[in-house]
Amino acid sequence: MTKPLQLFKQLALKDDAFCEGHSLCPGCEEAVTFHTLGRATDNGHKTVMVMGTSCGEVSTLMYPGTVAWGRGATEPEELVKSLGVIHHVFESAPTVAEGVRDAASALEELGAWRAPAPNVLAWSGDGGALSIGLRALLHTIHRRARIAIFVNINEVFANTGFQYSPTSVPYADSSTLPGGGPAEPIDHLGLALTAGAAYVAQASPAFPPFFAEVVSEALACQGTAVVFVPSPCIAGWKFREGLTAELGKLAAQTGLFPMFRKHAGKPGEIKFVAEKARRPTVEGWLAMQQRFEHLCALDAGAPKVKPGREAEVAAIQAYADHQVERLQRWCAA
Amino acid sequence: MAQGPDLRDRLERGEAIDLRGDGKAGGGLVLAVQAFGAALAARGDLDVQDWPLFSSARKGANVRAYLRVARDHVEATAQVTTPAIAVLMNEAAAETVDFAEGTASGVYVVNTSGAPEEVARRYRLGGTVVTVPGDALGNEHLGRPLGNVAVFAALAISTELVSPEAARTSLSKALRKRRLPERLVEANGRLFDSAMAHVQIAQVPSGPHTDHRRAPFRGYDVLPAGAQSALRTALGNRTSGYGRPGVKIRFADPTSRCNGCSLCVVQCPEGIIEFTPDPERGAIVHGARFDDFCKGCRECVVACPLDLFSEVAIVAAPDGAHRGA
Amino acid sequence: MLTALTATTERRTSPLYGARYEGAFDLEALRAAHRPAYPDGGRVSVDGNTAAAIPFLQWWRAPIAAGFPITPATKWLEHLAAESGSGKFDVEVGGARRRGKRVKLLESEHAAADYITGVASACRELIVGTATSSVGLDHMAESVRSLGASGLGNVVLVNVCRATANYPLCIEGDPSDHLAHRDSGFIQYMSRGKQQIYDALLQLPAVGMHPEVLTPTMPAYYGIKDSHRVGLLDVAPDDAVNAFLEEALRLGRSSRRPQAQDFLDTGAPDPEPPPGLLDGDTAMGNCVSSAFFQGFKVAQKERLQRALEVLPEVAALFERTFGRPGLSLFERHRMDGAKVALVAMGSDAGTALQLLETMERELGARVGLIVLRLLTPFPSEALAEALAGVEAVGVVNNAHHHGRGHLTLDVEDALSERGAAPPVESFFCGMGGADVSTATWMEIARRTVQAARAGRRAARWHLLHDGLDLGRTGR
User: Fold this and answer.
1) Is B232 within 8 Å of A68 when comparing Cβ atoms?
2) What is the set of domains in chain A, with CATH numbers?
3) What is the pTM of this model?
4) C320: left (phi over 0), alpha (psi -120 to 50) or beta
């Protein structure tokens, strides 16, 4: 008997609920995530996707010609293959998704819905879930809503033009904070874990097998699943085409946005982060992005810290190290 | 250069001159129009307004920009619908819009490697047709096919409304205002100088075939309550124009080496990799829908361990010759 | 354990809305799972909030309600929470004991509005609601204005009117919150007294869910003066409430089953309801550019105006069913032969109603009273007709306004429908729940009659309390 295909390969063969023809930037990691979600939800359950205001929304839900959702080339014959997608207001995705789930559960429990329980997903950016939407995120977790919340983290408010966001790495240049500032990113994983989500993960499509597992675990979770997806933003971070995946990998390997997953009550796991001595330092990641050009840039192919900016780069490195230590403590919790 | 005096005369008579440009987001159209506007304003005797068509367009999607200039205060805020000057920054934008819409004759400035007469035929233009190989110049000076500075130079020369010196100064100011590093400001300056020598201008007769006047608005269609809609309308939205100009991605696997690793399939942001499912190995790839939907992002090129995807550059040199394949 | 097999669904496509999977919901099962709140109906003594809560217990289409406490609406939520948790709505389904009524407690009003959006959009056959007031309504304002345009006519937002905001804070009732949301897109309706509050709720969802209206409803009543005042209420039996609603919902649906393409050809609205997220292959809440937005607003406005015609149809059915008047555009009292008309709204109008004869006796002129009920869309033509022939109008505003008063502007606009131009006196009283006494009403009537005799108004507005002019007459 042959070995079954790796999960991410199995997903690759599924019917995708996300279409080509969207207007996200060339190389946008969010689009990769949408395709993964689109395939993973081809699992015999009706899917409802709730989106907060974001690049994702205006680029995939634009009437009349850019609605980039739908499984298959035409309306499916089967209910479970169909898709309902809604955009309400900026910070509402987790709460609206909770309402969708409760409606489905009430109908099911009272005998009015006999199909399998639907996949209910919420999608927000760092604005919609961690800034203006932090209230909604934490309280939906607190109420143990049975939904899969995906939070796209690209360190900027991208949809409004890449302004500073609470997840910004220190000293990242942005239009509202030129040269960046010293504040460390908000501890989004700590907040979700403290609020008591049944499943908390940070996963990037730059690691396809891990990402596929995390997405599937989130959809299967019987409580609240929260998956943070660190996404390099080509237009906001300003890097050359083709570097999205490498930036995603380095962000994880340096410890800035490590790959992590934890079921409540069980030990957690950090992946792809080596021992400190063998871990890549942040300079390589910084040098690939124009938004850090004032700190560090490529010089004859190698990253070089600008004179006088050593302290800022050291602060970013310290944050990366701190993030790993913090998560290691959570893993044991 | 017959159109320069015509435009000057119109300003003298107190008329406003409208400009409209079409391009792709990230292609520099807005900056070009802003720089032109700033150069006009620097003259001191004109009032200028310029504005982009507001949209949520991101890198690669169509954008529009407008400018209105007059000797007296520009009061009118209605949209530009009959421009005296029409600009085409990225020819890919013209696949889905008529950049000459609303005109029957005028000044047309096109970023292209072709000659004005050929461009006039291609887009049915009558009047003053101006071309400049902006992408090639961008590649040469900036390492990117960014044609906006060249187009700005072409606007200055062909309209004769600003001197080249004033235009160059205004450009540097606009770039610094955008927080560009100084090395890039200098490179753009050199690009401007080079572009001046590559602008071509021709007078082309107008006629019925160059009449792009648009049909009047006839009402909104039946619209769904709450902007609810059917799904998958994006399937009709060809996004292959979003990519960098002059670059194509292709797939070649003549000896069937693809082993089903599926990395390209799951990492393509457009989801357009074409494959045959193999239950033991994964997705066996045989191509992708490059022509309609590829945005040239290169994720497949980077992801494939067997180098079955490659990027092919089609570079137009400043002299118009094509190189590469 | 899996229960029955997946219900077979037939896919019905609509070029506009996508597809709907008929049979996805077994509404008959949902109806059968309902345990009646008032199996035999009856007369009860309740406050306004309770009167507004009872329909949510009686509707089988409303298994879910949501909210966040705010004075003076809180009792609505508490009543629903207590009742739904009491066990009397529990039902055995498939061998398990299930809750027939669920109340969701959210962390804020904004969350409550978002939550009910999720429920309403998931299944458009469910009626889902919340109750709020003033600052709570404003806190959820972006969701309110979005829902107003969404087409989700199955959303009911009970607004317990209260003085809005701060500086100073006041938690007593006036309609300034309601009037701040005239353009939020909801059908706004005012009631006074327990019976009106209850009856309005029984009918409004049928107006909002009508396929040519598709607009959520905002039933309202004054905080404290109605919310916290106990009175008698005749409650109808659950069966009658639900049978009426089902019949009222069928008003908008044709007996034939047209294809979606029919309406595209004729431009008439599709009588089939749009799909929801669970039973549809569809997208809601798309983004549009300026090339399209205006078209949507035009269509939204037409749907709202259509409510002016649909509401009387629903009301007529209600009257035939229950033997008492249904929703009215406004109340009218002693208008036949009236020399002047007072136009008022809300709880305080009852005082005026009982003074009309005294006014005629003491002022020597017949005073008629119109009590506004449908606020948005405003029934301008009907009001113009009702006011035809009066020699002066006195409009009573209970809400702060930068100028002559919200309702005054609406009345002036209505009068202009027929080119009529009687003098209109504008009055402010009762703001923030201030008592509107007999003395105030008599002064209002006196000044309005005076305007009729003089042929012109005496001032742009009058500020009154307990019969006394507060000094600034807005010249």
Assistant:
1) yes
2) 7-332 (3.40.50.970)
3) 0.94
4) alpha
The sheet with strand A259-263 has its strands ordered as: A269-271, A259-263, A199-202, A225-230, A148-153, A119-125, A47-51, A83-87, C280-284, C18-22, C10-14
CATH topology of domain C10-251+305-322: Rossmann fold (3.40.50)
A104 contacts in chain C (CB < 8 Å): 122, 278
In this structure, the strands spanning B273-278 and B315-316 are: unpaired
| Interface membership of A97 toward C (CB under 8 Å) | yes
Name the token pair of A238. Answer: 């300003």
For A17-32, write each residue's pLDDT tens digit: 999 999 999 999 999 9
Q: Residue B265: give the domain boundaries.
A: 246-323
Above 90 in pLDDT, residue C270? no
Query: Do B40 and B161 share a domain, yes or no?
Result: yes
Q: Could you tell me the two tokens for A327?
A: 């998560």
- CA dihedral sign, ordered C206, C212, C214, C219: negative
* Residue B294, in any domain of the structure: yes
Tokens at residue A198, please?
């049944």
Determine the distance in angstroms separating the CA of A301 from the nearest CA of chain C, rounded to an integer: 43
Domains C10-251+305-322 and C330-469 are alike in CATH topology:
yes
Quick one: pLDDT at residue B212? Answer: 96
Q: Quick one: CA dihedral C19, C23, C29, C31, positive or negative?
A: positive
Cα–chain center distance at B8: 27
* CATH value of C330-469 in 1.10.3660.10, 3.40.50.920, 3.20.19.10, 3.60.40.10: 3.40.50.920
pLDDT at residue C200 is higher than 60: yes
DSSP for B56-80, please give it: ---TTSEEEEEEEEESS-----SPP
Report the residue of chain B nearest C301, measured CA to CA. B225
Distance from the first to the final alpha carbon of chain B: 35
Q: How many CB pairs under 8 A join B and C?
A: 73
What are the residues whose beta carbons fall under 8 Å from the beta carbon of C265, sequence distance 6 or more? none
Please tell me the distance in Å from C15's CA to the nearest CA on chain B. Answer: 7
CA C236-C238-C241 angle, to 5 degrees, is 65
CA distance A155 to A130: 11
In this predicted structure, what is the pLDDT of residue C5?
39
Q: How many domains does chain B have?
A: 2
Q: Across chain C, what does the average pLDDT equal?
A: 94
Rounded to 5 degrees, φ, ψ at A162 are 70, 45
Q: What are the C-alpha distances in Å from C173 to residues B255, C45, C398, C438, C466? A: 80, 21, 9, 19, 17
Residues 6 or more apart from A264 whose CB is under 8 A from it? A196, A197, A198, A199, A200, A223
C143 touches A at CB < 8 Å:
yes
In this prediction, the answer to ipTM > 0.90 reads yes
Which of C69, C97, C103, C73 lies closest to C85 in space, CA to CA?
A: C103
Q: Is A50 helix (H, G, I), strand (E, B) or coil?
A: strand
Indicate the Cα dihedral angle C147, C148, C151, C154, nearest 10°: 70
Helix axes B134-142, B148-159, angle to 10 degrees: 130
